[in-house]
Amino acid sequence: MISLKGFDYELAKGLIASYPEKNRSGARLFVVDRKTGKFQHRIFRDLLEYLNPGDLLVLNDTKVLAARLFGQKSTGGRVEALLLKPLTATDWEILLKPSGRVKKGMAISFGENGVRLEGEILDEPDGKTGVRRIRFESSGFQEKLNRLGRIPLPPYLGRPDEELDREFYQTVFAQKEGAIASPTAGLHFDEELLQALRQKGIEICFVTLHVSYGTFHPVQTEDLSQHEMHEEEFEITGESADQIARALKENRKIVACGTTVVRVLETLGKPIHSAKGKTRLFIYPPYKFKLVDILITNFHLPRTTLLILVSAFAGRDLVFRAYEEAVRQKYRFYSYGDAMVIL
Known about the structure:
single chain, globular, 2 domains
């Protein structure tokens, strides 16, 4: 049995990055060599030195929704809603806080500054995940959501969202709206670095995984084999599939930017092909990777599916030795924190 307790660690709050690095590619980069077990400490734009002409960099082009809403129950109590995904033009999966006192059929009104959005709760919470369904009024829904919705920052940042988050919690290549959390490894790229990579001969392609509850839902089973991922939607176009297939045929390296990209690629496997669907893939040790050669990632929370995936890629002992060194070197952790590349 692979036990969850093996993926726990302590972190001082002072190492959690509350705000982004304004110079995206100026974040620190922790370099891990899987073959030698050696570490290097660089700046993210130095990634250029570790990738070679012909390498294929795969990025996630999902775009974060303004998915957090604050409202009031018909009985007067305040409630917070996090939109997870649309089911129809008016129905959404959501998480509510607090959830227990919100009953099926209850009306919730979201609004501020004269803008109101009404919704009705359609069911009781799911026993495993707490996910609910809500039906919004159809009149002007998207416009009202754009005006009322807030950027859904992770709670461990310890602050409400601010105007700067509308820019910095999105990657510069975000295109397809649908995520409720950012694919944070991609936050370190700026246009200048992307252009420099292309000029060196590194090929770039895009896949989409709309980061949702599956990524950040806590692992609740001590035996990792018993954890069930909440499904997340993904897409890979024919163009991107062709780029990846050519790279594989020519034995060029596949560089995955982020755990979300890894999950898309490993869900499809070989032969790679265009697809649009849903994945529940949970990668944990021991896992044999089929496509990914290099992983770019951030520093992840303990006991999470993301840290477990990274440990499957590089080995749990090496990853935890790297995390201990990152703490000593005072790297910035989590969504707005520094980056790691595992070669």
